[in-house]
Design a protein that fits this description.
Layout (H helix, E strand, L loop, with lengths): L3 H8 L16 E6 L3 E6 L14 E5 L14 E5 L4 E5 L1
Antiparallel strand pairs: 1-2, 2-3, 3-5, 4-5
The chain binds zinc ion (ZN).
Pfam family, one: DUF7385
Protein name: Flagella cluster protein
Organism: Natrialba magadii (strain ATCC 43099 / DSM 3394 / CCM 3739 / CIP 104546 / IAM 13178 / JCM 8861 / NBRC 102185 / NCIMB 2190 / MS3) (Natronobacterium magadii)
């Protein structure tokens, strides 16, 4: 049995070497995919790379700009890698 703290540690999304959803394939459910922009649902209690709390949805884009037509109704965090911008809603 791994100890609880070690498990929590690995549940946090790690951006050190960039982000690829394939690293978290079993934990994130793909809701929308336009090729360069994806919306994912957190199924397994992954933790936000910014604040370390569990998030609800993860939005990932490789585009330079993104527009949201509807305001986020919940707190959200931003994180970035060299290629991607991530938005986690809580
Ligand atoms: Zn967060």
């Amino acid at each position: 049995m791994p100890d609880r703290r070690a498990t929590q540690e690995t549940a946090r999304i790690d951006l050190e070497n960039g982000f690829t959803m394939h690293d978290y394939r079993t934990k994130l459910k793909l809701l929308k995919d336009s090729g360069t922009t994806r919306t994912l649902e957190n199924r397994e209690g992954l933790l936000c790379p910014a604040c370390g709390r569990e998030f609800d949805r993860l939005f990932v884009t490789e585009e330079e700009t993104t527009t949201f037509e509807t305001p986020a109704e919940r707190p959200f965090c931003l994180a970035r890698t060299d290629e991607k911008l991530l938005l986690c809603t809580h």
